[in-house]
Specification:
Elements lengths: L2 H14 L19 H13 L7 H8 L4 E7 L2 E9 L14 E7 L2 E5 L1 H6 L1
Antiparallel strand pairs: 1-2, 2-3, 3-4
């Protein structure tokens, strides 16, 4: 066998020997580089320090885009509910509302958070 005949197959084998395929990465990063566990922990920590009357823009600057939002008019108040992921329920790769904490704002000011505040609406 000439040296040229075995050189190409040998190079192909060596070039593939460093390949690694991740099948199930439980710590998969979000688009911003943090993993979902860190993200929900940070959300919980921030929400636990909130006080009523905090402007919605302040919350959004800290927590970013909400996972879900609801907006409606109630009496003369503009109501917006922002849902941020704070706890894990199932490993399906999707964030659902039951994995989020609702933050309730009336006229741009935080009036409450959590299930009781949301259900009170």
């Amino acid at each position: 066998m000439h040296a040229k005949n075995w050189l190409v197959p040998a190079l192909m084998v060596f070039s593939l020997s460093g390949c690694v395929i991740a099948i199930n990465d439980h710590n998969k990063s979000d688009s911003d580089g943090t993993n979902w566990r860190e993200n929900q922990k940070n959300n919980r920590q921030y929400i636990n320090q909130l006080t009523t009357g905090t402007p919605m823009i302040t919350v959004m600057q800290q927590l970013g885009t909400a996972d879900f939002t609801e907006t409606f008019q109630k009496d003369d108040d503009a109501v917006q509910v922002l849902f941020y992921r704070t706890h894990h329920r199932r490993s399906d790769g999707m964030t659902t509302k039951d994995e989020c904490t609702p933050l309730v704002f009336k006229n741009g000011q935080l009036t409450g958070w959590g299930e009781k505040a949301y259900n009170y609406l």
